[in-house]
Write a structure and sequence with these properties.
single chain, 156 residues, Rossmann fold, alpha/beta
Length: 156
C-alpha cells in the first residue's frame, strides 16, 4: 500500500508526516506500506526546512535526504491513500484525479467529517514546529490504527 502526504511546499508538514509514518510502519511491522510526500506548490529538489530538520533530529527522524517534489497527476495515480494537511490541498489532489482516495488527514476515514487543517509551522519558532510534529504524530498514528482495524484477519 502506498501512502502519500501532501502540503504546500513539501518542506515542513508533509516530510515530517512521511518520516513519522515510515517510523510507525517499521514499529508495527508493516514493510508493505510505502510512504512518500509531495507539495501543491513545491520547488522540486528543495530540502526540508531547518525547523523540520531540527525537530526531526530531536525525534530520531532523518529528513536529511528529503527533496521536495511538485504534486502531479502521476503521483496521485500511483498512490493508494492520500492525506492532505488542509482543505485546499485536498481540492488540488481531487482535481488531479484523487477523488475517493484522498482525505484531509484529520478527517480520515470519514471524508464527510469536516476535520481541521494541520497548522503550518513555516517561518515559525522551533516550538511551533514541535507542536506541528506532535499533531502529525497523533494523526499519523490514528491513521495506522484505522488501517489496522480495517485489515481482514488471516483465516489460516
Amino acid at each position: 500500500m502506498k501512502l502519500l502526504f501532501v502540503c504546500t511546499g513539501n518542506t515542513c508538514r508533509s516530510p515530517l508526516a512521511e518520516a513519522i509514518a515510515r517510523k510507525v510502519a517499521i514499529e508495527r511491522g508493516l514493510p508493505e506500506i510505502e510512504v512518500s510526500s509531495a507539495g501543491t506548490s513545491a520547488w522540486d529538489g528543495a530540502s526540508a526546512s531547518d525547523g523540520a530538520l531540527l525537530v526531526g533530529m530531536e525525534r530520531r527522524l532523518d529528513l536529511s535526504g528529503h527533496r521536495s517534489r511538485q504534486l502531479t497527476r502521476a503521483i496521485v495515480a500511483d498512490s493508494d491513500l492520500i492525506f492532505t494537511m488542509g482543505p485546499h490541498h485536498l481540492e488540488r489532489v481531487e482535481a488531479l484525479g484523487g477523488r475517493g482516495k484522498a482525505f484531509l488527514l484529520t478527517a480520515y476515514p470519514d471524508a464527510g467529517t469536516a476535520g481541521r487543517p494541520i497548522s503550518d509551522p513555516m517561518g515559525g519558532e522551533l516550538e511551533v514546529y514541535r507542536t506541528t510534529a506532535d499533531e502529525l504524530e497523533t494523526e499519523v498514528r490514528r491513521v495506522f490504527d484505522r488501517l489496522a482495524a480495517a485489515r481482514v484477519p488471516d483465516a489460516s
